Amino acid sequence: MGALSQLQESADINQGATMTTDPASDKVTIRPATRHDVPAIVAMFASDGLGGHGDTSEPAVAPAYLAAFDWIEASPDNWLWVAEQAGEVAGTCQTTFVRSLTGRGASSLIIEAVHTRNDLRGSGIGAAMMRHAVDEGRRLNVRLVQLASNASRKDAHRFYERLGFVQSHLGFKMKMG
């Protein structure tokens, strides 16, 4: 049994999940992710040569991904989304609602971990996910929607700019382990 199928088996698949797209269709549907989707999401992250996050489909780390999924799913301010096409997970992103004291207590929606399956890039899936995330921001009545992108992802930067995002800040990180 391959690592991905072992991760799928260990995912304690949510039997109540329903498909929201017609498998014969090219239509893209954005929906909340389920535990059943975790192996496909992880496989996308693991295939990413630029991200440098160390993601892997190895079964030994499945519990870490599932614990993270459970935490995200339980949070009232975090949502993990998948783009589904032809009955398969084609992309993913996460949104997080944040409120701060700046801007008179304004709120924002942060978009993280945007990823389209390598073989489907350029087909509109990323744009559909981003439209969905921006619509979620409108629904939550946030002041702004923001995201960060790896400095090496020049194609992604052009993509975000085409969608109306403006590069406005310089980000910093400190790895903690």
Describe the structure.
There is one protein chain. With 177 residues, the protein is α+β, with helices and mostly antiparallel strands. The protein has a single domain (3-162), classed as Aminopeptidase (3-Layer(aba) Sandwich). 33% of the residues lie in helices and 22% in strands. The chain contains six helices and five strands; from the N terminus they run αβααββαβαβα. The protein has helices at 3-10, 38-46, 62-74, 102-105, 125-139, 154-162, and strands at residues 28-32, 78-85, 88-99, 107-116, 144-147. Strands 1-2-3-4-5 form a five-stranded mixed beta sheet, with helices on both faces. Helix 1 (3-10) packs antiparallel against helix 2. The longest helix has 15 residues, at 125-139. It is globular. The two termini are 32 Å apart.
Compose a concise summary of this entry.
The chain is α+β, with helices and mostly antiparallel strands and 177 residues long.
List the helices and strands and how they pair.
Blueprint: H1 3-10, E1 28-32, H2 38-46, H3 62-74, E2 78-85, E3 88-99, H4 102-105, E4 107-116, H5 125-139, E5 144-147, H6 154-162
Parallel strand pairs: 4-5
Antiparallel strand pairs: 1-2, 2-3, 3-4
Helix pairs in contact: 1-2
Number of helices: 6
Strand content: 15-25%
Helix fraction, binned, reads 25-40%
Classified in CATH, the superfamily is: Gcn5-related N-acetyltransferase (GNAT)
Q: Looking at the structure, what is the overall shape? A: globular
* Name given to the CATH architecture: 3-Layer(aba) Sandwich
Instruction: Let me know the largest β-sheet.
Output: 5 strands, mixed
